[in-house]
Structures are given as structure tokens and as C-alpha cells.
Amino acid sequence: MEKIDILATAKTHVERPPAPSQRVLVVDDEPLICRLNVEVLKEAGYDVHVAADGAAAWDALQQHDYDLVVTDNQMPKVSGMELVKKIREAKMELPVIMATGSLPDEAFINHRWLPPFALLLKPYSLPELLELVKSVLHLHNGGSRRTVVVPNWECQPQTFGVRLS
Length: 165
What we know:
By secondary structure, the protein is an alpha/beta fold. The chain has helices spanning 6-11, 31-43, 54-63, 80-89, 106-110, 126-140; strands at 23-27, 47-51, 68-72, 96-100, 118-121, 159-160. It has one domain: Rossmann fold (3-Layer(aba) Sandwich).
């Protein structure tokens, strides 16, 4: 059986973002997933920083400015959802992509201000991650005014890169 290089496959779909490089914080407690996400985003030209869990991500957000957070949901210490809540309560104008294995629960529906900018349902491919990062940054930075876009979960969650099968 032929071995497939996941990163090489993803690199064929890479488009470089305009300079200067946009800063992305990747938050995941799974080392392999984190490394793959970081490598493909760096190859695409993003300035990528890493946090091993939501608590470390919150510390990083206090020390540096980021253009985007890509976070797992289920993590020790501080979950992705708790991280989003902290970001929203601090009124940070920062889009968040949450990677999750399930659709939003009642907490998202009951607190419309809480949802991340977009969901990336697991399992996802690296090209799907790249496309979503590019799309979210484009939508979020589309004008001179930076605003937080919150999907209307009562209608339909804003999901990208969704695999239903």
C-alpha cells in the first residue's frame, strides 16, 4: 500500500495570504492534530502560534494580538467553548473557528452571543481547514471596521468543511 503524505496533498491547495502575515493561534491538546494544523497554516504563509489547551490559549491572548483562533472544543482545563465565552466576555473582536465532533448544544442556542465565528466539524481535511481560515479572515477583515459576526443558531449554524457522511 502506498503511503500518502497528508501535508503534501494539502500544499497543492495552498494560496498565500497577502502580506503582512496574519497571526493565528492554534489551540489543541492532541499533538499530532496540532502539528498538522500548524504546519499547513505556516506553509500557507500564516504566522502561527500554539497553545496546548484553553488555559494556555487565554494566557497567550492576554499577551499577544491575534487575527484568528482555531480551537478544539474538548480539552482539559479550559474547553474551546469556555475559551470562546472568555473571549466574548472580554469583548475581544476576534473570530474563532471551533473544531468539534458534534453540532452546537443548547449552550450555543440559549446564548446567541456565545457561538464561535464558524464550526469545523471533525473529521476535516487540511484543505478544508485552509479554506475556512481564508474565508473567515476575509469575512472578518473585509472592511476597515472590525466586528464580531455571530451566526444565527436558531436558523442554521454557520458550518464550513462539514462532512455529513
